[in-house]
Fold this protein.
Amino acid sequence: MASHRSNPDTAQGVPRSGRRATPRKRRRGLKITLGVLVVLVLAGGGTAYWMYQDLDGNIKAVDIDEALGEDRPEKLPTTGQNLLVLGSDSRAGAENKELGGGGGVSGSRSDTALVVHIPEGRKQAVAVSIPRDTLVTRPECVKADGTTVPTAERKMFNSVYSEVGPACVVKTVEKMSGVRIDHYMEIDFAGFKDLVDAIGGVTVEVEEPIRDKASGLDLTAGEHKLNGTESLAFVRTRHGIGDGSDLGRIGLQQQFLLALLTEIKSQDLLGSPAKTYKIANSATKSLTTDEGLASLTSLSKFAQSMNGVDPSTMETVMLPVAYDTIDRNRVVAAEPQAGDLWKAIREDTAVPESAKKSPATGG
């Protein structure tokens, strides 16, 4: 079967800079989830917060509410929250361009997308990953320069970011799911690499050798401690596993998230001011959020509201998809599974097991 590969996109609609002048198969995206968790863990520390409040200016902001207006799904009737997390496959800057086989690829894409649902009671979060090769209907959107982009059918999901910008990605997710997105976060490749290096690396167990020339990953079977660059290749590899599609790397990414969370929990980050600062600096320099979270004070309050959530128990579900009947290199939302999944998120109820099964697995 043909590989399910994304085509390079042109760079348009890149996120705006900050609001002020000063600076076992699941879906990919775990590198971004980790970045969010590290930021929230650090911000929620309270006693250490004063040590890096000067990093506040690192965070960039996108005004999602202003861009989307009033034509949006209703907020949850409970205290539940929905967070859209994007991983930016940005080639801006020398460091991003060289990472993960990025040479020769220009522009920015939403390499990873997760809708993180934090239910009422804040006990166990659910992360719904949207495969980047999913064909969607892009709604009419307004770009940062005020240009209106008309609605378009059969657009690849990760092209929305590059063509129109992050606010349109939020609008696309809301239209396809009926789920109101309360907050937005984005981190880029270089940020992920720096986070892992700041933590000191992550240990993973590899069951079978993985050799992927595209990502640069070359691992024998057994235990490996990966640095930032190696970790990036690990979560991006696709050619040495499954059918070589974007769906095939899901298992590795789930494994990496758990290993990384284990590493974080094993370290006394809040008891080491120098290390805490280094990690926080790496995270915030590569972080873009909605206006409501664009400060460490706001991130801290958000983190404190989730004190009851254990990140290691977060459930990661891939949006159920089926191979497109016209282009087998693309996928489409599978029904009724996808509808049932979004319904559970909208109603703040448990996701039924039937809604977690995807006809297209990448195996």
Q: What stands out?
A: Residues 1-35, 91-107 have pLDDT under 50 and may be disordered.
